Amino acid sequence: MSGEALQSALDSAWHRESAAGSLERWQQVCDSEGWGAIPRNRDILVRVFGASWYFTRFVFYRGPAAARLIDEAVDSAPQEHPQPPDPAAAGIEERVEELRIFKNEAMLRLLVAWLDGRLGQAQAEAALTRLAESVLRNMLDLFVLAGGAGDLHAAVLGMGRLAGGEMNFGSDLDLIFLHDSPAGAQAGEMSKRVRALLRHIAAASPAGSLYEVDMRLRPHGTSGALITTSDSFKAYHAGTRDVWERQMMTRCRPVWDPERVGAQAMQSVLPHVYGRRPAAELRAEIRAMRLRVERELGRPQGKIDVKRGRGGIMDVDFISHYLQLLGGVEDPGFRNCSTREVLNRAAAAGTLPPEAAARLVDGYDWLKRVEACLRLFDMRSISAFSDQPGAIVPLARGMGFADDTQRFLDEYRQRTAALRVRFDEVLGA
């Protein structure tokens, strides 16, 4: 790669100083170790260094293996269904470490394709979700099923973005653990195994980490049992629940269900989630909850919240919740966990004008890319950025605005204002 091309890559790097420093150190390591000029696609290496400190550390940790992976990711399409290798290590810690390496290598491949423009936002989210499910299944095999635990009759429900196939870079896993075993020793054993899984899945090592897990969406929240019996789960959602809890359950599906415990629980619960209510009442409650979230959480001092703020991602989510809770009573096609799919279904059913649905999906995709750019540096689940133009140069570059942060902010405000207009049209001004 020519020096001119390399300099051009450095000039366009999101975090320019971080990319330049990391590239200099990489060249020093390559020289001292005798690796040569790797990877071949140094411009992509620079883009990774500039976008993510998390993956910069991973590249240095893996060395030539990461360099080969970057070149392979440039030369070929991302793996649609990545599968972890059969673990060669016998110990539990070693097997979890192999999973960390697998997960971060697979995610690095996706990041390269996403940075290179060969993977759109929706495609990236679908691939990130499949990767998370693969890792989760392997962790469950290691911890919950280890030693022969088929009599536990367990399942795991995915919530939120995991359920909808819309996980982003840095997304948590929102989970509910179910079991259908008699109370006593079996339930206690499962609880012990799940706690071990939660410790290991969030732990970090030089190879990086797997996922943070959020279990606050289980019945009764943090005050509820860690492991929920399927009978308790069904009884809870069969009772009188607030609309926000019904909204939450529109994003719930079994992600690990070897004995159909989760499928049977959801079959029992969905008629209550999609129970008939007057449209005006449903609309008013969903709108009130959205504005409450915006008022209490969407206005951080000196920052703009892309998820909870006015016209943010949640405006689109809440529109989809209303449309599917209204339409899902009669039409099973609305009982879908994906925000994008619900909007497309509404357009097909005539509930939403096709042009309005297309604009909502486009705005949703754009905001989810903003979210991805924010999270990539440290792979943390953050959703707010500074309202000062001078502090958001990396974000503007990631969104294709070069150093013109004011133009990015103008575009952001125009798009979120348009989404709020759509929100008001559907849910009432």
Tell me the layout of helices and strands:
Elements: H1 3-12, H2 16-33, H3 42-51, H4 53-62, H5 64-75, H6 92-115, H7 121-143, E1 154-159, H8 160-164, E2 173-179, H9 185-202, E3 204-205, E4 208-209, E5 213-214, E6 227-229, H10 230-238, H11 243-249, E7 252-256, H12 261-273, H13 279-297, E8 303-305, H14 313-327, H15 339-349, H16 354-376, E9 384-386, H17 393-398, H18 405-427
Helix pairs in contact: 1-3, 2-3, 4-5, 5-6, 6-7, 7-9, 10-12, 13-14, 14-15, 14-18, 15-16, 16-18
Quick description:
The protein is α/β, with parallel strands linked by helices. It is 60% helix and 8% strand.
Helices and strands, in order, run as HHHHHHHEHEHEEEEHHEHHEHHHEHH
At CATH level 2, the architecture of the largest domain is: 2-Layer Sandwich
**Quaternary organisation:** single chain
Could you report the average pLDDT, rounded to the nearest whole number? 92
**CATH homologous superfamily of the largest domain?**
Beta Polymerase, domain 2
The percentage helix is: 55-70%
**Number of extended strands:** 9
Please describe the structure with a list of short key phrases separated by commas or semicolons.
429 residues; alpha/beta; Four Helix Bundle (Hemerythrin (Met), subunit A); 2 domains; 5-stranded mixed beta sheet; 60% helix; globular
